[in-house]
């Protein structure tokens, strides 16, 4: 199981988001004071329902996109754009927390110009050393 799936991602962005989550849960005395009981251990992990209510839905409303966007849609777009920009497949795999490169390869189907991007990367590398 990957860090992403087990809720143990330790990247700077997840740590910062968790700090905000913990601060909102704590009372003035510094002790946990949730409005409703936890459904699972949240040590280092932000529960999906809390994230949706306090972060995702307010962000969608503020963006006024006019369409419903799921968190997974954003994740998929992020991975596809990284790959379209020439990011290394292994780097994207690690960024997404995939255990297998085969899972990350599924994002390649959305890249119409992947062959052209690969050729551009090759050309840049080839002529850089001259």
What's the overall average pLDDT, rounded? Answer: 75
Low-pLDDT parts are: 1-5
Compressed to H and E, one letter per element, the order equals HHHHHHH
Number of helices: 7
Number of strands: 0
**Main sheet summary:** none
Instruction: Sum up the overall morphology in one term.
Output: elongated
Which bin fits the share of residues in helices?
Answer: 55-70%
Radius of gyration equals 19 Å
Strand content: under 5%
**Termini Cα gap:** 44 Å
How would you summarize what this structure contains?
It is built from 7 helices and no strands. The chain has helices at 3-6, 12-25, 48-63, 71-84, 89-96, 101-105, 114-128.
Task: Walk me through this protein's architecture.
The protein is mainly α. The protein folds into two domains: 3-63, no CATH class; 71-128, no CATH class. It is built from seven helices and no strands. It has helices spanning 3-6, 12-25, 48-63, 71-84, 89-96, 101-105, 114-128. The longest helix is centred in the middle third of the chain and has 16 residues, at 48-63. The radius of gyration is 19 Å and the shape is elongated. Mean pLDDT is 75; it is low at 1-5.
């Amino acid at each position: 199981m990957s860090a992403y799936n087990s809720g143990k991602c330790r990247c700077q962005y997840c740590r910062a988001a968790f700090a905000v989550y913990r601060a909102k849960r704590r009372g003035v005395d510094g002790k946990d004071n949730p409005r409703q009981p936890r459904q699972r251990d949240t040590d280092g992990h932000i529960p999906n329902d809390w994230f949706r209510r306090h972060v995702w839905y307010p962000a969608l409303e503020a963006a006024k996109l006019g369409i419903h966007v799921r968190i997974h849609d954003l994740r998929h777009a992020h991975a596809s754009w990284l790959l379209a920009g020439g990011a290394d497949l292994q780097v994207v795999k690690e960024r997404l927390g995939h255990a297998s490169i085969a899972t990350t390869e599924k994002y390649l189907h959305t890249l119409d110009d992947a062959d052209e991007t690969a050729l551009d990367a090759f050309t840049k590398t080839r002529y850089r050393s001259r």
